[in-house]
Amino acid sequence: MRASKADWNFKDLETLYLGYGFTYREGSKHRIYHHPLYPELYATVARHTSLAKGYVADAVKLIDRLQQLEIDNE
Asked: Residue 55 and residue 51: Cα distance in Å, rounded?
């Protein structure tokens, strides 16, 4: 994911977010992911087959932030 932000799809991001413990709710055209332990961590992802690279870049930053919060709270 860090190496290439291209060719990721909605299912790929869903797998990533759920794998890191995020839950989600449905919006009208988007899915909103949030982490139950860190409510400040959330992302809105359009439900399209292919995604803009910005969604992938945001996911990388969000996961990095989650990992840092988990280290800080040990």
From this structure: 7
Report the chain's terminal Cα–Cα distance, integer Å. 26
Amino acid at 31: R
Task: Sheet with 23-26: list strands edge to edge.
Answer: 23-26, 30-34, 42-46
* Tokens representing residue 33 in the block: 């992911």
pLDDT digits (tens, 9 = 90+) for 3-34: 777 788 888 889 999 999 999 999 888 999 99
Give residue for tokens 């055209």: 29
Burial class of residue 64, CB neighbours in 10 A (0-12, 13-18, 19+):
exposed
Q: What pTM was estimated for this model as a whole?
A: 0.87
Length of the chain: 74
For residue 63 the two structure tokens come to 């996961």
